[in-house]
Amino acid sequence: MTRNNWIALAVLASVAAVGACSPKGGQAGQPDQAVRERDRSATPVSYTIPTGTRIDMTINDELSSRKNKAGDTFTAKIVEDVRDPSGNVVIEAGSTVNGLVVAVKPAPNRRSPGTLTLALSTVEANGKTYPLTATIDEVQTERRNQPINSGDAGKVAVGAAAGAAVGQILSKNTKGTVIGAVVGGMAGAGYAAETKDVDIVLPNGAHILVTVSEPLTVTASK
Fold first, then answer.
1. How far apart are CA 164 and CA 130, in angstroms?
2. C-alpha distances in Å from residue 50, one per residue of 71, 78, 80
3. Computed over its alpha carbons, how large is the radius of gyration of the chain?
4. Strand partners, 208
5. C-alpha distances in Å from residue 59, one per residue of 76, 139, 208, 215
6. Which residues have a Cβ under 8 Å from the Cβ of 36 and sit 6 or more positions away?
7. Quick one: pLDDT band at residue 4, thresholds 50, 70, 90?
8. Residues with Cβ < 8 Å from 216, sequence gap 6 or more?
């Protein structure tokens, strides 16, 4: 073989080797592209709920100023998707919020209804738990009388059962939100009911409307 033939053969071999190693070289480049696309799809992204965001949730277990005590925990379920200002879903509907009963005051008499002090602590989203700083603004509560005995039965007017009244936010402090009811708000209650101690109750499924007081950032896969 002549010298020129050797040179031509070497050039062809070099071109073939470059084509095989090039990332654009047909099937040889496809695995790398698949890896890049997979890495991009798995890149974690973060969404933030700003201060002032309102969240509606329903409580999972009944809470009562007669039965509960300080230190008890409770959970609630978020009613609707919580979105950031761009419309991204940060927390899905059905996610769990965890809370704490900070203080309890059973009703001592009819002039001093019982109260519950509640605080929210964390929210579970995308398989992770995040601290939640939010204040309770509105609650759906009942005000229940303690059982009426036989001696009081004759004093009971029509409608004087263990009635319900609208609860309200009595005050807020650094530990939580105090929830109670106004005395005398029991429509249709008779004399016997009015003379019984009255406790505040958050029934199972009651709505709690809260406002986020510190931005909440949640990480999710893109």
1. 35
2. 29, 17, 17
3. 32
4. 57, 139
5. 4, 10, 7, 23
6. none
7. low
8. 48, 49, 53, 90, 123, 130, 132, 133
pLDDT digits (tens, 9 = 90+) for 176-185: 988 886 554 4
CA-based end-to-end distance of the chain? 60
For residue range 116-128, list pLDDT tens digits in order: 899 999 999 989 9
Place of tokens 């798995």: 42
* CA neighbor of 99 nearest in space, from 126, 83, 86, 117: 117
Q: What sign does the dihedral 132-136-137-139 (CA atoms) show? A: positive
Tell me the three-class secondary structure of the chain, residue by residue: CCHHHHHHHHHHHHHHHHHHHCCCCHHHHHHHHHHHHHHHHCCEEEEEECCCCEEEEEECCCEECCCCCCCCEEEEEECCCEECCCCCEEECCCCEEEEEEEEEECCCECCECCEEEEEEEEEEECCEEEECCEEEEEECCEEEECCCCHHHHHHCCCCCCCCCCCCEEEEECCCCEEEECCCCCCCCCCHHHHCCCEEEEECCCCEEEEEECCCEEEEEEC
For 69, the token pair is: 């005590």
